[in-house]
Amino acid sequence: PTSGWTGDNIMERSDKMPWYEGPCLIDAIDGLKAPKRPTDKPLRLPIQD
After folding, report:
1. Are 17 and 25 in contact (CB under 8 A)?
2. pLDDT value for 26
3. Where are the alpha helices (DSSP H) in the chain?
4. 44 in a domain, yes or no?
5. In whole angstroms, what is the distance from residue 6 CA to residue 26 CA?
6. Domain presence at residue 49
7. Distance CA 11, CA 28 (A)
8. Range of the domain at 29
9. Which of 8, 29, 37, 47 could bridge to 3 as Cys pair (CB 3.0-4.6 Å)?
10. 39 lies in some domain
């Protein structure tokens, strides 16, 4: 849970939500891992007209 209006739990954990035990939004985004790219597959280029 975050509040864009007050900035709670966006950059750092908020003391206004003691029931929430997870990371703040920025920490959650920083913790994401990029998917492995299939470099061993043939190249595919979508073409649109």
Report:
1. no
2. 95
3. 25-30
4. no
5. 15
6. no
7. 10
8. 1-33
9. 8
10. no
Q: What is the pLDDT of residues 1-47, one digit of tens each?
A: 888 888 899 999 888 889 999 999 999 999 999 999 888 999 989 99
Residue 2 corresponds to which tokens in the numbers above?
């975050």
- Please indicate, yes or no, if residue 45 is contained in any of the structural domains: no
Rg (CA), the chain: 19
- Residues in CB range of 17: below 8 A, 6 or more apart: 1, 8, 9
Residue in the block written with tokens 């649109």: 48
CA atoms within 13 A on the CB side of 33: 3
Asked whether the whole model's pTM tops 0.90, one would answer no
Location of structure tokens 């703040």: 24
Count structural domains, the chain: 1
